[in-house]
Amino acid sequence: MSSVKPDKQQQHDVFQAIADPTRRSLLQLLVDRELPVTTLTGHFPMSRTAVSKHLRILSEAGLVTERKVGRERRYRLEPEPLLELKRWLAFYDRYWDNKLDALKRLVESDES
């Protein structure tokens, strides 16, 4: 019998996590620095409990990590899961590039 536990499966995926504007704002605040939940709460018109719930969803998606420093919890952005979003959006970049190239060819052929 193996004593190895299966990896904890993410409870929220990246797409679910960033769907909420508050969570996107939290990620922006954490881009360059680690911040305590009390500082993050000061940026939003909601309770510390509500901000903590948003941070928990981001954490479950792997987008933030937390560490305890004294009596406070500090949060830091983990950008690697955003690569999944980047790859997904890259397909649509190619789609729009192709559409714009086709439009350019059409316009240029009409000018002749």
Record the SSE blueprint.
Blueprint: H1 14-18, H2 21-29, E1 35-36, H3 37-41, H4 48-60, E2 64-69, E3 72-77, H5 82-111
Antiparallel strand pairs: 1-3, 2-3
Domain HTH arsR-type: 3-97
Organism: Paenibacillus methanolicus
GO molecular function: DNA binding; DNA-binding transcription factor activity
Overview in brief:
With 112 residues, this protein is an alpha+beta fold. The protein is built from five helices and three strands; from the N terminus they run H-H-E-H-H-E-E-H.
State the fourth-level CATH superfamily of the largest domain.
Winged helix-like DNA-binding domain superfamily/Winged helix DNA-binding domain
Number of strands: 3
Helical residues, percent: 55-70%
**Structure classification:** alpha+beta
Low-confidence stretches: 1-8
CATH fold-level label of the largest domain = Arc Repressor Mutant, subunit A
What pattern of helices and strands is seen along the backbone? HHEHHEEH
- Number of helices, counting only DSSP H or I runs of 4 residues or more: 5
- What proportion of the residues form beta strands (DSSP E)? 5-15%
CATH class of the largest domain equals Mainly Alpha
Please report the distance between the alpha carbons of the first and last residues: 76 Å
Which shape, going by the Cα principal axes? elongated
How many domains, as an integer? 2
Give the mean pLDDT.
88
What's the architecture of the largest domain in CATH terms?
Orthogonal Bundle
Organism: Paenibacillus methanolicus
Domain HTH arsR-type: 3-97
InterPro entries: ArsR-like_HTH, HTH_ArsR_DNA-bd_dom, HTH_MetalResp_TranReg, WH-like_DNA-bd_sf, WH_DNA-bd_sf
Protein name: DNA-binding transcriptional ArsR family regulator
